[in-house]
Amino acid sequence: NALFLEELVRAAAEGREELPLSVQALVQTRLDRRSQGAREVMRAAAVFGQTFWTGGIAALLGRAVEGELAELEQAELVTRQDGSRVAGDHEWVFRQVMVREAAYASILDEDRPSLHLSAAAWLESVGDVDLGVIARRAELGGDRQRAGRLYARATRQAMTGGAQLPTALE
User: What are the C-alpha distances in Å from 82 to residues 79, 91, 93?
Assistant: First the structure.
């Protein structure tokens, strides 16, 4: 596993004597070394999925997050994309799926539904984001009716190449 090898090299370069035995443990150790604010940003970002936006994280946390995102980029945990699907906002991506999974695993189960619903609301408010992504956030937040409507719209959107067709489902 290339990620495991990369993390082992990083751990050795940092002079750590104890090396975790799994990729997940290595990644979690790396996340634990970040500042409290950066860990909060990572958890909020993980709610969105592999891709996330500065404005979305700021909305979920209720504060500015640029400093923490810079810290995470410097630590090679996230990468800023050249473009963005959200006008006027910076789009980011987790460098590795395992990093996103470790950050998501650190969110308390009871906090996940409200975070997913908040993420869905923010994504809907900015528009021009995949309706399937919004539907998944609504589903994970427990709002199955809303998720169903959004999945239906996403399916129609995919079948029509994005053309808006009137329907009785909306």
Answer: 9, 8, 11
Give the whole-number percent of the chain exceeding pLDDT 70.
84
Average pLDDT of span 43-63? 96
pTM of the predicted protein model = 0.79
Q: Which residue shows structure tokens 């634990």?
A: 32
CB atoms within 10 A of CB 166: 6
Does residue 50 contact residue 94 with C-beta atoms inside 8 Å?
A: yes
- Give residue for tokens 């937040």: 141
> Which residues fall within 8 angstroms of residue 69, CB to CB, at 6 or more apart?
41, 54, 57, 78, 80, 90, 92
pLDDT in tens, 79-134: 999 999 898 999 999 998 989 999 999 999 999 999 999 999 999 999 867 898 89
Q: Which residues contact 85 (CB under 8 A, 6 or more apart)?
A: 91, 128, 129, 130
Specify the DSSP element, H or E, that contains 10. helix 2-13
